[in-house]
Design brief:
- The protein is α+β, with helices and mostly antiparallel strands.
- It has helices at 12-29, 40-67, 79-87, 91-106, 109-116, 122-134, 141-154, 160-174, 176-196, 218-231, 247-264, 284-288, 345-354, 380-390, 430-438, and strands at residues 199-202, 212-215, 278-281, 293-296, 307-312, 330-336, 342-344, 357-360, 406-410, 425-429, 442-445, 451-454.
- It has three domains: 39-195, no CATH class; 213-232 and 247-268, no CATH class; 278-471, no CATH class.
- Helices cover 44% and strands 11% of the residues.
- A hairpin with a 5-residue loop joins strand 11 and strand 12 (451-454).
- Helix 2 (40-67) crosses helix 5, helix 4 packs across helix 5 (109-116) and helix 10 (218-231) crosses helix 11.
- The relative contact order is 0.05.
């Protein structure tokens, strides 16, 4: 056979591939609609055999290209890079292809012969290569050959998934101690990656419904399921009829109940000594008459700034009142709020009875918002009033930490005689709280009733006053 590759001559392989290409083109153009149903299986098997034999040829060519360092003709860093350039495979797929080609030539020749005969698929050959490579180095050649023969025999009845399981089982039988050690290390790595990949995010709120995206590692997911299972059982049939909820609905209801239980628990998570609660803003008369709607103050949606008036009480010495409140308590403009999802008056009344709800305006009559120096920590009601004023985020310029994660800071420190009231408070995240205390920044109450900041001279030589609310506050 003439294999001279000089100019003007064509290698037999190239002529053969050209002929195969013509045959395949004819097969592709042949209509399959008229193929008898009884011949579909035979046709698919023949295609699988052709794919396997072509894969064997490609592996052989890849191996020879590696030995001849063909990669140097294109400047590829390695043979896998050359294969990736030529075939447009992914990097991992190209690396697997080169590794398999080498193994078929050196360590699993029987698998190479089976692939070239179309007796196994390319995927099965990759599984066998992986299983043999997994064996410890001290396993002798005879045992490796027996293992390969066992997998080749199993490949006649098993698909790639089951063959992979057989390969792992073979590994555990041949080298149980090594398998236990390696599997343990692999599990530890998988578990570490799973913990680092945990995610939770909130989607948009539409038509009264929101979306939460959650990915958890297996142990955490198992704990969550164990907590939900008792709460997700179908309710017994009662006067209102049988429980017709779907399984998905029951688990969603169980999750809502679990959150309520966690919120009401004495050991519920707190932030700044405050248990998790909700704030709903609503007109008192509408709420009393079950009319209109309220607004759930939440960062789930941001509809822009709006004025908020909160009732304040004057102290025995007249503190807590000013010109805007008439000097003896009343309605005071304390800033803007982030408006969130609307809630019906009926639902607000229900939540106010059954949940930890702070109804702004409704709760203004009973909430003490201005305290003297007798109390060092800002109360829950004060923190919420500060949040209403400062926008439910850290007030420091450009800070977007949610109110739940931030701290109430005395503008004039409590130790220096500063009162624990709204006119001396500002919400700051932990980082910016430290900045105010240690980095030379000054915070003071501006003429508009909102905090303003003076940077240190090494930040701004002119120490221009920064007012974060200038672009958002609607002044009267």
């Amino acid at each position: 056979m003439d294999i001279d590759t000089g100019e003007g001559l064509t290698h037999p392989l190239m002529r053969w591939l050209a002929g195969v290409g013509e045959q395949i083109e004819g097969a592709v153009e042949c209509p399959t609609l008229s193929l008898p149903l009884r011949e579909y299986e035979s046709a698919l098997r023949e295609i699988a055999v052709c794919e396997a034999r072509l894969a064997s040829l490609r592996s052989s060519l890849t191996r020879q290209a590696e030995l001849n360092e063909v990669r140097k003709l294109t400047g590829a860093a390695n043979t896998a890079g050359w294969v990736q350039q030529v075939t447009r495979m992914g990097r991992r797929e190209a690396s697997v292809s080169v590794r398999l080609a080498k193994a078929l030539d050196q360590t699993i020749q029987a698998t190479g012969s089976a692939l070239s005969e179309g007796e196994i698929s390319l995927g099965q050959a990759q599984v066998i290569e992986r299983a043999i490579r997994r064996l410890p180095n001290d396993v002798d050649a005879a045992v490796r050959a027996e293992a390969e023969a066992f997998l080749l025999d199993s490949a006649q009845a098993l698909d790639t998934d089951d063959l992979d399981k057989a390969g792992k089982h073979l590994y555990e039988v041949i080298a149980p101690e090594d398998a236990e050690r390696r599997i343990g290390k692999q599990l530890e790595e998988h578990e570490r990656r799973a913990r680092e990949s945990r995610t939770l995010s909130f989607g948009p709120v539409r038509d009264g419904m929101g979306t939460m995206f959650l990915r958890l590692d297996v142990p955490t997911l198992a704990i969550l399921q164990a907590l939900l299972d008792p709460l997700a059982r179908p309710r017994p049939t009662g006067p209102d009829g049988p429980d017709l909820r779907s399984s998905e609905r029951r688990y969603a209801d169980a999750f809502a109940e679990l959150l309520a239980l966690a919120q009401a628990a004495a050991s519920a998570p707190t932030r700044g000594s405050i248990s998790p609660r909700l704030t709903v803003t609503m007109n008192h008369d509408d709420l009393a008459n079950k009319l209109g709607y309220g607004t759930l103050n939440s960062v789930l949606t941001d509809s822009g700034p709006a004025h908020l008036q909160v009732k304040t009480q004057a102290g025995p010495d007249g503190s807590g009142s000013d010109e805007r409140s008439g000097g003896s308590g009343g309605h005071a403009l304390i800033g803007y709020r982030i408006t969130g999802p609307p809630l019906s008056a009926t639902l607000v009344r229900q939540l106010a009875c059954d949940a930890e709800i702070i109804p702004v305006v409704l709760g203004g009559d009973g909430a003490v918002l201005d305290l003297g120096r007798g109390t060092r920590l800002f109360t829950y009601s004060q923190r919420h009033a500060l949040a209403e004023r400062d926008g439910y985020f850290g007030h420091f310029p450009e800070c977007r930490r949610p109110e739940k994660w931030i701290e109430a800071h005395h503008i004039q420190h409590w130790v220096d005689g500063g009162a624990t009231d709204l006119n001396n408070g500002v919400l700051l995240c932990q980082h910016h709280h430290t900045v105010i205390h240690t980095k030379g920044w000054t915070v003071r109450m501006g003429d508009d009733g909102h905090p303003e900041y003076i940077p240190p001279p090494w930040v701004d030589p002119y120490q221009n006053v920064i007012r974060p609310n200038d672009t958002t506050l609607i002044r009267r």
